[in-house]
Amino acid sequence: MNIPHQKDLLNQLTPGTKVIVVPHRNPDGDALGSCLGLAGVLRKTGCIVDVISPNAGPYFLNWMPGFNDLLIYEEQTQACMSLIESAQVIFTLDFNDLSRTGIMGDQLSKSKAYMAMIDHHESPADYAQYMYTDTAMSSTCEMVFHFVQQAQLGQHIDRDIAQCLYTGLVTDTGSFKFSHTTPTTHRVAASLIESGAPNQQIHELIFDQNKPSKLALLGLALHKMEVIRSCKTAILHLSQDDLDLHDHQKGDTEGIVNYGLSLEGIVLSVIFIEHKHEGLIKISFRSQGSFSVNDLARKHFEGGGHRNAAGGKSTESLEKTIERFKSILLSTEELCGTN
Ligand code: 5GP
Ligand code: MN
To answer: Looking at ligand 1, which residue's alpha carbon is closest to its atom 17?
Structure first.
């Protein structure tokens, strides 16, 4: 474990200190789990803690302890702005560039608060005084666990906090199957279960509470999937009309991209999702092995992430974006070169 010296940061966190904890925009299980978990621990030390999410979380995580107390910057902007203004310490969790918080990033970048980053993505930006970043980590939730232990605050991990942290472990490791799942990850999971995380129930809450719209959109995306065998690639896409037809709800399309990878011989899967009201195509990439979707997303689609899971966006039309992706793909020696 490579946790940077915490002394300076912990010196700031005296009882009564005003702390803000922030996940990335469109927060997932790891982002929300790490924020709610860390917030719970810090509150027990006497800090005054608010979790401010740039926008709302997905419905399938609405059972998480603390979910209903989240402040949403894009909906309660004035209240959030004054909290950020008076914050003394700001934790940014599960992202490493303030642009990942959307318009909230402008205000965060002006803040005079002590900034702390805990994150496992590649290429961190340089905005935080305290940086605990490690791309080998399974999840930010695992990092928060190690951070809390190192700070001698492990005794504060109660059932609710354990439930939050366990959620991020499950979602970011694909239920303990992705490559960054280590023996230590399993030890952390075991410790969280010992602290009361209802592990079987958490899996059910995450995966077995789907809305019909989610399965309908999964079916449609799989039906339309295009496989380019010569480049070991699966391409999925959903238009705004597809989403509207099936009464799309936030969170419905999460995870669909993984199905492309489940095909024999496929090492790159990508999904393009049209969000007309935002004027954007949101893109999710997944790969297996050495092919870096972080590099691909960073270079061509204004995004980034991890080697095997990354996201990006495009302001061109859905058709043009897919066309551009295909031409990039066809010139990618690593995927299409040897068959
Ligand atoms: P997803 O495809 O599930 O949205 O994201 C996959 C991974 O890439 C996650 O770790 C997520 O935080 C990261 N990611 C998604 N979109 C972006 C983006 O636009 N920029 C960067 N730097 N990372 C992203
Ligand atoms: Mn994460």
So the answer is: 311
- pLDDT, tens digit, 9 for 90 and up, residues 189-244: 999 999 999 999 999 999 999 999 999 999 999 999 999 999 999 999 999 999 99
In this structure, which residue's CA is closest to atom 15 in ligand 1? 311
* Ligand 1, CB within 6 Å, residue ranges: 24, 100, 121, 284, 303-306, 309-313
Token pair 């914050």 is at which residue? 87
Q: Which residue, among 60, 57, 59, 68, has the nearest Cα to 32 in the 3D structure?
A: 57
The domains spanning 7-207 and 212-336 adopt the same CATH topology: no
Amino acid in the structure at residue 281? I
CATH number of 212-336: 3.10.310.30
- CATH number, domain 7-207, options 2.30.40.10, 3.90.1640.10, 3.40.120.10, 3.40.50.800: 3.90.1640.10
Per-state percent for the chain, helix, strand, coil, to nearest 5:
45, 20, 35
The atom of ligand 1 lying closest to the CA of 96 is 22
Which residue's alpha carbon is at the smallest distance from atom 6 of ligand 1?
Answer: 310
